[in-house]
Amino acid sequence: MIIETAMQLLDEGGIESVGARSIGRRAHYHRSTVMYHIGSIGDLHRDLWLHVAGEVAAAAVPTLGAASGGDWCDDAASGIVTYWREHRNRMLFFVDSDIRMSDVELDETLIRRLYPGTDPARAAIVAQLAFGMLGSVIDILDDLPPDQHIEAVASMCRTAIDHVSREFPVG
């Protein structure tokens, strides 16, 4: 309930609107109860970041390991653009946060879902690169007219896949 409430507040007003007091008011909990469950605001931000990472990954690449090459980039781009349009503040928090993929331990279940059948070490590198690319995606989405969003993100996806394939060959 606390994370869900924090996500609603994040959608409505950005990360500045997410705090123990605002979560408590919305969820009808005392501030101390919220703090007991979240630990610190830093812990809450980390939990939110991981939650958004999972959502972005699920929206963009629900079956990434099933395809090779750039065949799935149109679907991934559509998922990213849709998520950005519905949850802009979440994506802005995700890319603007001081939290980085290297600072957190990637959830093994998330890695297995994103990259089934892939070596976990390679999958973690690919995930770091993919999430790192989202800042550039947001710049594209802010700068281009909406009718060009999916095509531009798909093109960026294909370029990233080509780069990863060259730098980290399978086998």
Describe what you observe in this structure.
- This protein is mainly α and 171 residues long.
- Helices cover 70% and strands 0% of the residues.
- It has 2 domains: 1-39, Arc Repressor Mutant, subunit A, CATH 1.10.10; 49-167.
- The protein contains 10 helices and no strands.
- Helix 4 (41-60) crosses helix 5 (73-86) and helix 4 crosses helix 6 (88-96).
- Residues 64-70 have low confidence and may be disordered.
Sequence-ordered SSE layout with sheet pairings:
Blueprint lengths: L1 H12 L6 H8 L3 H8 L2 H20 L12 H14 L1 H9 L11 H7 L5 H13 L1 H10 L5 H19 L4
The gross shape turns out to be globular
Tally of contiguous helical segments: 10
Q: Which stretches are poorly predicted, pLDDT < 50 over at least 5 residues? A: 64-70
Instruction: Supply the number of structural domains.
Output: 2
Q: State the major sheet.
A: none
Helix/strand order, N-terminal first: HHHHHHHHHH
Report the strand count: 0
Helix content: over 70%
**Coarse structural class:** mainly alpha
Strand content: under 5%
> What's the pLDDT, averaged over the residues?
78
First CA to last CA: what distance? 44 Å
What would you report as the Rg, rounded to the nearest angstrom?
17 Å
Outline of this structure?
With 171 residues, the protein is mainly α. The chain has helices spanning 2-13, 20-27, 31-38, 41-60, 73-86, 88-96, 108-114, 120-132, 134-143, 149-167. Helix 5 crosses helix 10 (149-167) and helix 7 (108-114) crosses helix 8 (120-132).
